Amino acid sequence: MTETQTSEVFDGLGYDPFNQTVVASDIPLHPEDEWLGATIDDIVPVQGQYGPQLRWEILLDEEADQGNGAEGADRKDWYFTGPRVTTNERNKLRQVIKWLTGEFPEQGEQVDLRAFIGMPVRVMFERYEKDGQTRDRIYRMKPKG
Predict the structure, then answer these.
(1) Residue 82 domain flag
(2) 127 phi and psi, to 5 degrees?
(3) In the chain, how many domains are there?
(4) Are 125 and 28 in contact, with CB atoms under 8 Å apart?
(5) Domain that holds residue 47
(6) Residue 23 is assigned to a structural domain of this protein
(7) Domain presence at residue 39
(8) Which helix (H) or strand (E) holds 139?
(9) 44-82: pLDDT as tens digits
């Protein structure tokens, strides 16, 4: 990124993005190991840290219509999978399909992921450490009901 590009991206932040002091997060952690009601709000193809991924955007019932996210939008939690489902037992997309349908997809089976958008689910969070901070992430999901 050139100095001009950097300036365009970071103008108006009020701080130097390359020389930062770590500050406390104002985003509370979710309860750990507890099923929470939610909805799969969207599934978005993104270029992730490890290449192409699908970002499953999850809106918790308790955070819907709160406007507690960026620019007054509802805060969403994310779960990432690879963009392709395979028969490999470690394939995260395969695991999500199993969580949501109760069965692993079979080789050759067609799965339309758009059918999951809007689906009421329950999600569970786990805590982990990163960069000296405790964070949380979705690690399980199942249909609501």
Answers:
(1) yes
(2) -100, 150
(3) 1
(4) no
(5) 30-143
(6) no
(7) yes
(8) strand 133-143
(9) 999 988 899 999 999 998 765 555 444 445 678 999 999
